[in-house]
Every structure is written in structure tokens, then in C-alpha cells.
Amino acid sequence: MSQITFLALDERMLELAQRTLKDDCADIRFETGLSGEGVARVRALQEQGTEIVITRGITAAAIHAEGIDVVIVEIAVTAFDVIRSIERARHHGKQIAVVVFPSMAKGLDSLASAMGIDLRIHILASEQDADATVAAAIGAGANAIVGGYIAEIAARKQGCPFELIENGQEGILQAVAEARLIADGQNLEKAKAAIFRAVLDYSYDGIISADRNGKIFFFNRSAERIAGRKGQELIGKAVGDAWPGLGVADVIASRQEELGQIIPINGTDVLCNKVPIIIRDECVGVVVTFQDIAQIQKTEAHVRRRIFASGHVAHFSFADIVTESDALKQTIETAKDYALSASSILITGETGCGKELFAQSCHNYSHCHDGPFVAINCAALPTQILESELFGYVAGAFTGANPKGKPGVFEMAHGGTIFLDEIGEIDLGIQGKLLRVLEEKRVMRLGSDRLIPVSVRVIAATNKNLKQLVEQGGFRSDLYYRLNVLQLRLPPLRARKEDIGPLAKRFLREENGLGRRQTLSAPALKALQTHDWPGNVRELRNIVQRLLVTSKQHTIDAATVHRVLIDEDDSPRAHAESPAYDEAPEIRKALAQARGKRAEAARLLGIDRSTLWRKIKQYGIT
């Protein structure tokens, strides 16, 4: 498929063009066709990709007259072309007639004078006048006729000598060079248009363009999606007919842009902008853009998560909770039910019993698990700093603030979960602001007067009796009831002693390092169950770490556990309530079961034979 076609008027012209261009013609298609025949040929070639036609004279004029949408590059007839033809005609007689169309007649009078010949010029008004015009020239005494292809046909019919004004190689080369320049320009414009079209088509915004009369001439794919209509159905139609309330005519008349309007289109609320197109102080049209508000909100949430909530991820799920306790298993099932609700959750329990573990698990089990999980310890920060962390601040809000301002944790948690740990420690003043955010679902940064909408799931936790704090005036009752929609009470570790062993083993696996593989003997695990664990799971992990560091044994025994637990609680009451653990009965029982075989008894006790030997001597067991 060639973009350029060389349309020769006959085989002579075709042969000359091919000879002139030689091997430099890979991008050109060669065809023949004179006048009407040439027009028909160009129509067919246009469907095959021809955009530029190189031809001459009457054929060029005929193609143009038919309005065919191709670029016509006319091969210019030079003075040298005419002179060569006249010189050949002089062999037929002194009086020579030139029969040409007006476009070829320029300068012929001057040429005749310069050559000193009797040159009669006859102008062809149309192709149909050729026979009559040639006859008139013969009647006026012409010995020979010089002209183009149409004049040649008429002269041959009337038997008059004729010399064709043929194009020279220079005219052909010039026309081809011009056609190639035009093709390069067209291809560049096509590339620009394709890029521009791709940008518009793949824009998330719906874009419609209309002319000064409000007629649609551009409709991109996003506009089709939002409007629920095909652009081809609307091209050429008035915007006002498609959407009567859009007000495009007002924008064209006023030449003033209208931005940020919310209008319904195809059952969807969209943000609409209308901008007039002004060229040379004249409004020539209007561009209308649509943005799906739901998509804007979705994008905003994504941006907030990427920019503000980086790293705010819940790492734990319900599967990470180690338990053999029926009570805690029931608590987990309740927590799963709560997680699927959008209501606030208040987690209560002693320190170290896993409140954040449950909060993260609830988030990962919830419908907003793809959103951020942002935790803040309300007891860890002074009041002023806590307020700025919760609600954020604008630039210059207070001395020492980030000069660019900072979003608060509610903004960071948009589309996800905010975990307010130790909620019972916050100041009454902040409690009021927190209540407003929870009720209005909007947050105002410190130093700002702009409200920012937030969609956040709230989980709060405390180791205090909030109901009692409310009665004492230390906690707002309205905030308490706002937070305490779904309450989750976590049992302390002492109430689920069956979990101490599995938890201790897990912590042991996690903390073992540098090639060490220490274990806890069965009596050692029983010894752990004698402790009250006021620090709950956190204290248990600490004790396991301490055992690993202080014990040199491969298997940690009960005496070592007891010694570490005594060190853990140095109060007189603790010493009184924690008597030394007597291992002797356990050792005697194991020896009896093993029928005196110390290796087997050591295996039953989960200790080394050397350790058993030492303990037998220590307790005087025979």
C-alpha cells in the first residue's frame, strides 16, 4: 500500500517517470489514466491507501473538480518543456498553434517573441472544446499544433501534425520531491494525532468536544463508559439534545469556564468541567470533561494509602493466636463476628494479654482488610503531641511542626482500621474532639478550617475499667458508648493455664538462635503453670527469653524455671506464695517407671542423664 501514486496520462509519460526515478521509487505506485479515466482510477486507489497523487493538466483539474479527498501535486510544465516541443513543431512549417488550458498559457507570448516565431495561442475552456479549438487553429493556417494530451487526441483525429508538450525529468523529480515532503508532514501529523487520541481515549476523564454551535465532534472512550452511549451515535449531534441540562450553550455564549459542577449522567454523579475554546478572541467551541465521583473517591483512597499509610499493615491474623482454651476459642469466634461488622469494637483485658493481636486479626478478617491498619498508643504521647498525631496539622500550626504539615492517623487510616490503644489514658479535651470525628466521620487538622472526610473502622483497647472511669468523671460517657458498641473481653493467662505450655514452646522456637535448640522439660512446663502471670503473655515471653539466656542446659529443668520466677517477683507475698518446687517425687516416680534404669528415667523427665545423676545426689535418692 503506497501513500503516493504517480498517475501518468499515457504509457510514454509512465515510461519517462520510471526511467527518471530508476531505483528511487519503492514508496511510489505507478498508474495511468487520462481525465475521467484517471478520476475513476484515483477513487479506487484512495480506498487502497493513496493520499497523494502526482499528475498534470486536465487530469489534475478533473480530480480536483470531483472533490476527491487526496492531495494533488501537479507536475509543472516548464519553459524548457514548451521550447522543446515548439522546436520539434518548426519542422512542420512556420506557423505554429499552441492549444492549451489556461494554466499552461502563462508566458507563451514572451516566449514567442524571444524565439522570433509566429506563435498563435488558443485557450481550451474545457475538455469538450478540444475538437472545435483545434479546428479553429487549423482554419487559421496552423502548420502544426503544440499542446497537451487532450489537444493531441483532437489534432490526430483531424490529421494535423502535433507535438506533445512533454514533461522533462526535472519537472518529474521536483513533483516527486514535493509529494514526499507532503507525505512526511502527513505522517508526522498522523503520529501526533494518534498519540493525542490515545491520551484522550485512555484518560480516566470522559472528554467531549463540541463546536461553536454545540455540535459534538469528539467523544472519548471514558465518556462512552460514563454516559453509557457510543460516541459514533452522538458525533454531529447537539450536546443539548443528548444532555439538556448540561449548559454548553451558556459557556459558549459567556466564554467563561464552569468548573466543579456535580451533575447526574446515566444514573451516576459526575464532576463536570466546561471550558470554552478561544482562538483569536473568538469562541470556536467547548471542551466538557466528566469524572466519576465514585472513581475519584476510590483513587483518593488509593493515594492516601500509598502516600500516607506506607508501612501501616496488620501482620497478624486469627490463625496466629495460639490457644487450647475453650474460653479463648469462643472469644476468637466472637471476634470474627465482630470483625465483619462496621461498628466500633472495644477490646478490654489486662496488660499483655494480646489486645493488639486481636485488633490486627479483626482488621485482616474484615471487609476493609485491603486498607491500612494504623495503631497509636494514647498513653505514650503528651496531650498536645497526641492531638496532632490523631488529627494532623497544617504548615505553621505550631512551633517545631513539619513545615509541610502532616496528616493525622485518621487520614492515614482512611479506608481501613485505626487502633486506639490505651484509650482510657486520653485527656478529656481530646476525648471531645475524638467524639466529633467519630460522629461526623470528618477530621479537621490543627490550624485548618477545612473538614476532610474519612471512612475508618475504629478499634479501641484498654486495661482499665472505662465504666468506672465514666462514673468518676475521668472519661466521657458519650465517647464510651460510641466506642463500646461491640465489646471483646480477653481472659488473662492465669485463667487459661492450658495455653502456657503451647505458648512457651512457641516462644522458645522463635527465640532460639545461633544454632541453639534448648527445650523445656515436662516438669519445667508444669512449673510455669504455678505462676499467676500478672503480665500475661508478654510476661511469659520475657520469662522464656530469660531462661534461654541464663540456662546453660540443653533441656531447661523445673528448678531453673522456679529460680527465674522467684527473681521475677521480688515481693514478700510472692516469696511466701511461691514455695520451692520439690522435684524429688517426680524423679522417684520416673525411676520406678523405668525400673531403676537412669537413661530411661532421664528420657521420661526430659533431662540429660548427667542432670539426673546430679539431682539424685542432690536429693539423696537411693
TrEMBL record:
Keywords: ATP-binding, DNA-binding, Nucleotide-binding, Transcription, Transcription regulation. InterPro entries: AAA+_ATPase (IPR003593), AAA_lid_NorR (IPR058031), Homeodomain-like_sf (IPR009057), HTH_Fis (IPR002197), P-loop_NTPase (IPR027417), PAS (IPR000014), PAS-like_dom_sf (IPR035965), PAS_fold (IPR013767). SMART domains: AAA, PAS. One of its GO terms (molecular function) is ATP binding. Residues 321-549 form the Sigma-54 factor interaction domain. Pfam families: AAA_lid_14 (PF25601), HTH_8 (PF02954), PAS (PF00989), PrpR_N (PF06506), Sigma54_activat (PF00158). Residues 192-237 form the PAS domain. One of its GO terms (biological process) is regulation of DNA-templated transcription. NCBIfam families: sensory_box (TIGR00229). PANTHER family: TRANSCRIPTIONAL REGULATORY PROTEIN. This is PAS domain S-box-containing protein.
